[in-house]
Specification:
three-stranded mixed sheet
């Protein structure tokens, strides 16, 4: 069934918090209780082998993942990824809404979005890396509950152009970008360079005949500012919820997270974060630590209620 009433999403959030507690147990406890979950990704990493298999999600569905890739490993072990993003989506993405997923990866949040918006909703996902896009497409075809899903094999940016992207291989594909690897302290070798089309979110929405956007999630490997510039028409017209990854990686030419946050707030938005499982107002920082990236939800001040944790 779809998450078509408040009871569905409340139950899904209870399950999410259950898996969060499991994931936060000591390494020893996790290893004793789930030895296969703990050792298989490590063994595959040592052997430099990749394995595709099904993983369960906290809301009860399945998806294809590729071990030992980091995002896949997290989902396979604990049935969720990025708890703050999950909490925001569960609280604010409703049946019948239109959800835009920029930086969809293998499709975990695309699938969660489809579960939440239901059969009358719509999902539009962007993923630039060709082979990652194939995994995304496979998951949508095999597991999406929302059949109104449009996929774009391109990057979102501020202008229509062509850019060089860096593919760090299947084990590190979550770091693929045009800005260089962000995995500090552990150098990543580029496996392949490829060119990708950069599209404005506004233009793609027009082509897909999307009339109104309710929720945009952006995880664009330090290109969030460019994505927002290419979605200005949508932001001004629709005032959607904006879910944004923050973190400063000292990459030349990349706008600081603080400046991005201020620019969104100047459009009559208020920033919120997840703290200890609760949604609370966010206080702007001077610097956002690169080794602790997080996500903020921007809620339009007008016609939107302030969030309250369940």
């Amino acid at each position: 069934m779809y998450a078509n009433n408040i009871n569905d999403t409340v139950e899904a959030e209870k399950k999410l918090h259950y898996f969060i507690k499991k994931a936060n147990r000591s390494v020893l406890t996790r290893t004793i209780l789930s030895p296969r979950k703990m050792f298989m990704p490590k063994l595959l990493n040592i052997k430099k082998k990749a394995g595709e298999l099904k993983a369960k999600t906290f809301w009860g569905d399945e998806m294809w993942v590729v071990l030992p890739e980091e995002v896949s490993t997290r989902i396979w072990r604990w049935q969720y990824f990025e708890e703050d993003v999950c909490i925001f989506m569960l609280n604010f993405l409703k049946k019948g809404m239109t959800f835009v997923d920029v930086g969809a990866h293998f499709g975990f949040f695309t699938l969660l979005g489809g579960y939440l918006v239901g059969s009358n909703g719509q999902v539009l996902s962007f993923e630039p890396t060709p082979r990652t896009y194939l995994n995304l497409k496979k998951n949508v075809v095999d597991f999406s509950r929302c059949k109104n899903v449009a996929l774009s094999n391109c990057a979102a940016g501020s202008t229509e152009s062509i850019a060089t992207f860096y593919d760090y291989g299947i084990f590190n594909c979550g770091y693929n970008s045009s800005n260089g690897a962000r995995k500090k302290g552990r150098p990543i070798e580029v496996e392949e360079e490829f060119t990708v089309k950069i599209r404005k979110v506004d233009d793609v929405l027009k082509e897909k005949n999307v009339k109104k956007v309710d929720f945009i999630k952006i995880d664009a490997e330090s290109s969030e500012s460019d994505v927002l510039k290419g979605a200005q028409e949508t932001l001004i017209r629709d005032k959607p919820f904006v879910l944004l990854e923050v973190g400063d990686y000292e990459i030349s030419g990349v706008t600081k997270s603080r400046d991005v946050i201020i620019s969104i707030q100047e459009m009559d938005y208020t920033a919120y974060e997840v703290s200890n499982g609760k949604i609370v107002p966010h206080t702007i920082k001077e610097q956002y630590e690169p080794d602790k990236p997080g996500n903020l939800l921007f809620i339009p001040k007008k016609n939107k209620p302030a969030p309250s944790a369940r």
